[in-house]
Amino acid sequence: MVAKTLYGLEDVLAEELTTIGAKDVTIGRRMVSFYGDKGMLYKANFNCRTALRILKPLATFKADHADDVYEGVKKITWDQFLTTEKTFAVEAVVYSETFNHSKFVAYRTKDAIADYFFEKYNKRPSVRINNPDFYIHIHISHNDCTVSLDSSGESLHKRGYRISQVSAPLNEVLAAGMILKTGWRGESHFIDPMCGSGTLLIEAAMIAMNIAPGVFRKEFAFERWPDFDSELFEEIYSDDSTERVFNYKCYGSDISPEAINKAQKNVKNTSLSKYIELKTLPFQQYSQPPKPGILVMNPPYGERISGDDLNELYAMIGERLKHAFMGYQAWIISNNDAYFDLIGLRPKQRIRLMNGDLECEYRCYELFGGKRKQWVSG
Q: Per-residue pLDDT for 302 more than 70?
């Protein structure tokens, strides 16, 4: 099987898959391949915080032009999955000098599947873009084609808990990956002082208690497959044996009362209000954050704030970190080195990530007073 993810999160996803028992876990670019049975397919969808979708490959073949794609797809025994009464959709991802348009590849794939059924049953299954019965994925790298069933359906970043959001909200998979990259698993307080609609806080609370990210989802695509084992999935869904006690809290704040209102709605929808505390508070007014703790922040990048205001914002972030967050690790994501320079601290670690289409760096700062050696030695 193949688990797709965001750039920079491959190692985290591989660790997640290994933890739930996947075999032969191999890291690729924006993906991790692994082996497992039907239960592992269900677990990967239900438990992996950094997976976008789980694909089950059906066939691989070489293709040098569109007719090769058509013939390769048509050779698959489609009636073991689909019937003429079912609907399907095709997504194509193409990295090739030969194939320039993913939509054309998807179109030829649809033709091949439809013609397979028409020649055999004199009837075609219908193509349905939204909410089809089957999601089919074709991936072409140079001339290597892989056709897969998409077992997830709607992207797994759509957890199902977000009912209200600010503009440009953080992707849930990226939020979970950012937290997992820090190594934090609930052993201290968690602070997001620019929390927007609360995604980092909710993902943090779920990580701290090891609540499966799929628990709020209404449906996975594999539930419509002819071999779906409802008893097996119910067993996986109901298994809370790995959940943990969280003895600290997640604290979120934002300068915008509207954002806090939206975050409160989302938190209430997850039933995690006991563990997440929210308030309207500008970051410059932070004075005594609870300890021990970790801070994770996704400040504005410039889409909605002017250059001068952004410069002041990042300089203020650096000032508050130095004066109020001694003993903390602070993790900040941004897409501009100049903004990091304004923070005025030397990062302990730098990680490249993608936030949507933006190339970003995710930096870790260890905050200590006086000389570093004294702080490290305690």
A: no
